[in-house]
Structure to design on (422 residues):
């Protein structure tokens, strides 16, 4: 059956009746509660739940949809949350008259304030685009040894920082840090001159396995509540000096930015595609159903202060070498417990061609080939007052499935408060 939304959905909005992504929102001075995007509106799920429409499903729905994060709602389990989403889909479809006053539950998306929809427990970042890993390898080690020996055998990742993950629209300051210029013998203390984005897709864990209970690749899909567009900011100059031998630290933990919406795994079922061929064959615990990748178009835009947008990269999640199910199986194979509200991210998603590289590091080849914006200015990395915007769309069941956007403006570094310390 083809569903049609009761309220107008602009062409290519990405927020049609098949999508219904979750968010947490407030209006001026109001409490935070859950919402769902439909067309240019946010459906007030908190108020809708209080009206009693979900009463037959579970007694905890009205309470959990009126909390400031979705963690407790997600913990009700997919059987319940899927039923809620299908109920909303029915209520807002043409032909359903159960909710005669449906308009009172709608807010225009331009007047609401979006908040981070989950309290993020642990944040893990993978490194799952082979094209990205190869490019970085070529830059730092040469083409001969571009991929590390482990790369084709396991989804490489590291444990990141959850506290500094912010919602789209939250500005970030250029970070200070310790940097060792290439020609210098000693490090200097400075503001980062190589501030960069990473184009990533993140996902929210929606089920717990318990310590000591690995999740198999065939069980893993059940653990994914939904997907969120993610910009994992990186200060390349800080990162390249600090990362040996334990990996990323202050070059990464000053901020990462999430789009406000969680697109459910169910809405993306129709956007699944074949995972690339994995050669050499992976160990049995990493073997997966071939159809475990997603076809989601991604783009990155730079918007200078008062300037217009320039699209600087177009990529797709299908270029990821490792699937989400392999990442989860690998993450838990040693017994590590996944918790509701954990955020896992793909790593920079670079396309094979240079117009689809997922970071400035690659797009400008470490600053050696500056990008030209539509206003005529050039960028090697991200300037102060630039806004970096990422957008993503999939196509499923004949409808565009949008992820919203993640937009972050870079503010100048804070005043130097260490100058007088000798
Ligand atoms: Mn990253």
């Amino acid at each position: 059956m083809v569903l049609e939304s009761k309220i107008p959905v602009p062409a290519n909005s990405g927020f049609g009746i098949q999508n219904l992504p979750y968010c947490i929102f407030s209006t001026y001075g109001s409490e935070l509660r859950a919402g769902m995007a439909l067309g240019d509106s946010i459906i007030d799920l908190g108020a809708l739940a209080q009206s009693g429409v979900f009463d037959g499903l579970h007694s905890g729905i009205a309470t959990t949809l009126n909390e400031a994060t979705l963690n407790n709602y997600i913990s009700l389990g997919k059987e319940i949350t899927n039923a809620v989403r299908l109920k909303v889909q029915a209520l807002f479809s043409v032909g359903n008259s159960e909710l005669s006053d449906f308009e009172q539950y709608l807010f225009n998306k331009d007047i609401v304030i979006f908040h981070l929809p989950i309290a993020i427990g642990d944040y893990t970042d993978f490194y799952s685009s082979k094209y990205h890993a190869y490019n970085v390898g070529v830059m730092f080690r040469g083409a001969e040894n571009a991929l590390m020996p482990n790369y084709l055998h396991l989804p490489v990742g590291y444990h990141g920082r959850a506290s500094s993950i912010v919602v789209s629209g939250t500005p970030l300051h250029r970070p200070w840090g310790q940097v060792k210029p290439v020609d210098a013998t000693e490090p200097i203390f400075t503001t980062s001159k190589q501030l960069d984005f990473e184009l990533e897709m993140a996902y929210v864990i929606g089920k717990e396995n318990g310590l000591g209970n690995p999740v198999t690749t065939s069980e893993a899909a059940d653990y994914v509540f939904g997907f969120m567009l993610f910009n994992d900011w990186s200060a390349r100059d800080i990162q390249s000096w600090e990362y040996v031998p334990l990996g990323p630290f202050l070059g990464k933990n000053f901020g990462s930015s999430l789009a406000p919406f969680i697109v459910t795994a169910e809405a993306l079922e129709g956007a699944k595609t074949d995972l690339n061929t994995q050669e050499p064959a992976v160990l049995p615990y990493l073997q997966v159903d071939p159809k475990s990748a997603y076809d989601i178009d991604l783009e990155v835009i730079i918007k200078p202060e008062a300037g217009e947008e320039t699209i600087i990269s177009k990529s797709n999640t299908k270029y990821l070498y490792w699937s989400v199910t392999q990442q989860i199986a690998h993450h838990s194979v040693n017994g590590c417990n996944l918790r509701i509200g954990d955020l896992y991210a793909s790593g920079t998603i670079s396309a094979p061609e240079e117009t689809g590289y997922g970071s400035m590091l690659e797009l400008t080849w470490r600053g050696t080939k500056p990008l030209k914006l539509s206003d005529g200015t050039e960028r090697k990395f991200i300037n102060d007052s630039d806004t970096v915007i990422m957008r993503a769309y999939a196509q499923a069941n004949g409808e565009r499935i949008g992820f919203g956007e993640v937009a972050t403006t870079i503010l100048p570094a804070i005043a130097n408060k260490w100058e007088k310390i000798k």
Notes: The chain has two domains: 22-115, 123-420.
